[in-house]
Amino acid sequence: MVVRVRVDIEGYARMMRKLRHDEAIAGPWAAAMRTVEQIARNAWMGAAPRGRTGLLKARITTKVQARPIPKWVRIKTTASRTTGTKWKRYRYPRRLEYEKKSKHYHKLTDALQRSMGTVQAVLDRAARAIEAKWRA
Length: 136
What we know:
By secondary structure, the chain is mainly α. It is built from 6 helices and 2 strands, in the order H-H-H-E-E-H-H-H. It has helices spanning 12-21, 27-47, 55-58, 93-98, 107-114, 116-135, and strands spanning 60-64, 73-77. Strands 1-2 form a two-stranded antiparallel sheet. Helix 2 runs antiparallel to helix 6 (116-135). It is elongated and about 60 Å long. The mean pLDDT is 77.
């Protein structure tokens, strides 16, 4: 299950055009994206229901785009039911997150939304660091 959250950054296209020509300056951006990955992972880990097995929390994985200037961070869980014969390997996180009858409805999405302030602060710091390198 992958939850997509879109973050709009003013001047992003202009900054990416400038960074494309000088990847040495892009260090603060890559570091910021790795920090965003950690923030998203911690948000999901804190919001994931424990359950009997703890699989949902244990199988949360993250990935940053493997480029000098990454553009995205992915967070997902690969948990599936491990017991029973009829529903074995059923991927239940999607049902927990999106079924309105579930007591965990939108719990992971809401955790990411709450962490957006921290993400914005990290990206602002990276933008200031890049601007400082451009001026130097």
